UniProtKB/TrEMBL annotation:
Residues 15-180 form the Glycosyltransferase subfamily 4-like N-terminal domain. Keywords: Transferase. GO terms for molecular function: glycosyltransferase activity. It holds the Pfam family Glycos_transf_1. This is Glycosyltransferase involved in cell wall biosynthesis. Residues 193-354 form the Glycosyl transferase family domain. It comes from the Bacteria. InterPro entries: Glyco_trans_1, Glyco_trans_4-like_N.
Length: 379
């Protein structure tokens, strides 16, 4: 097979989990498949971040500045169809909801739907964003030959909002997680000195500072700990977003500036170190199609607290600690305090670590995608 993969949307360090997802998938496919030919379409601004060692993985650098979403959408629907035809692709895989509007004869299209957040929380998006979503999501869902949903929750959501789509058109394949990168060991003292942080004395959350991540609830819950646990700190790792100013103002108003650390973007090695030395991991998100960080935390054998929202109980295999009302800082505070006062059994944490690694490894998920490519090609 000749398989095309769209990497035009990648803006390194700026698109969150969908970037990790694609890079992990490509790594997994390169490890397991030496037979099929892959053509990865990159931009002039992201191509240097993609490196392939196998001869059957080919990088196609497109004359496009990928930083501009609307130029990318225009390119996808004017120039990319010609490239698909020129490379005589059997399958074109779009890892996000944006795909070519027109179909290229002889090429089957697979699209990945990460979530339908715009249907649930339209207030979080601009009018222009909603215009794009309302144009391309229906096209991807209705016109693609096959749809990948990254959780059973997402599949059911698609079927609810697009009832004309048949269930057997949607294949659930979970996101791959590069567990090897979480085992990277390097000198960590400099990191902890820079952040003025003691090991095993902080609560960690990895999330972009966006409204649906619901981080104000975590900040307020953490403020309740000040009296009982004055040495515990809160570390918020992730790219800045629409909620940054709100969160920073709340931290100041609560008088906890000295106890909350927002390092922004960190390297894989630094993230691994922060996971390894955290006391507790917390996700307060109210909407996820998958949710990689809680799973990564479980792999690192950290007691993990999440909401019961969307896909989170599913992808954490119902093995995390859950609180009922995602907006209740009191409930979250009580759950954090419960773990601080009564540490989980290390044997349980070890078991959960093995479970998530077995379910979401790059290799396992890559084999599922390869099976899907074969099924679509032969159908």
């Amino acid at each position: 097979m000749r398989i095309g993969i769209d990497a035009l949307y990648i803006r390194p360090g700026k698109v969150g989990g969908t970037e990790s997802y694609l890079r992990n998938l490509l790594k997994g496919l390169e490890d397991i498949d030496q037979e099929n030919q892959y053509y990865i379409f990159t931009t002039e601004t992201n191509q240097e971040t993609f490196h392939f060692s196998k001869e059957n993985f080919n990088k196609v650098v497109c004359k496009l500045d990928g930083q501009n979403r609307f130029k990318r959408v225009f390119f996808t629907n004017t120039k990319l169809p010609k490239l698909i035809k020129n490379y005589n692709l059997d399958i074109m895989f779009f890892p996000t909801y944006i795909r070519t509007i027109t179909k290229v004869k002889g090429t089957k299209i697979i699209s990945n739907i990460h979530d339908l957040q715009y249907k649930h929380y339209p207030q979080y998006f601009s009018l222009l964003q909603k215009l794009v979503f309302n144009t391309f999501y229906p096209i991807s869902v209705k016109k693609s030959d096959k749809i990948v949903a990254i959780s059973q929750f997402v599949k059911e959501d698609i079927l609810t909002h697009f009832p004309e789509v048949k269930s057997n058109k949607i294949k659930v394949i979970y996101n791959p997680i590069d567990f090897d990168s979480l085992d990277v060991t390097s000198e960590t003292n400099a990191l902890f000195q820079r952040l003025k942080l003691k090991k095993n004395s902080y609560i960690l959350s990895v999330a972009s500072l966006l409204p649906h991540k619901n981080l104000p609830t975590l900040v307020k819950a953490f403020s309740h700990l000040k009296g009982d646990y004055p040495d515990i700190k809160l570390v918020l790792v992730g790219v800045k977003g629409k909620s940054t100013q709100t969160i920073e103002e709340m931290i100041r108003n609560l008088g906890i500036e000295g106890n909350v650390i927002i390092p922004g973007f960190v390297t894989n090695e630094e993230l691994s170190a922060l996971y390894s030395n955290a006391k507790i991991y917390v996700s307060t998100s109210i909407f996820e199609g998958f949710g990689m960080p809680p799973v990564e935390a479980m792999y690192k054998k950290i007691p993990t607290i999440t909401t019961k929202c969307a896909s989170l109980p599913e992808v954490t295999l119902n093995k995390a600690y859950y609180y009922d009302d995602p907006f209740s800082d009191q409930q979250l505070y009580e759950k954090i305090k419960e773990i601080l006062e009564c540490a989980p059994d290390p044997a349980d944490l070890m078991e959960y670590s093995k479970l998530v690694k077995g379910k979401y490894s790059n290799e396992k998920i890559a084999y599922e995608y390869l099976a899907l490519f074969n099924d679509v090609y032969n159908s």
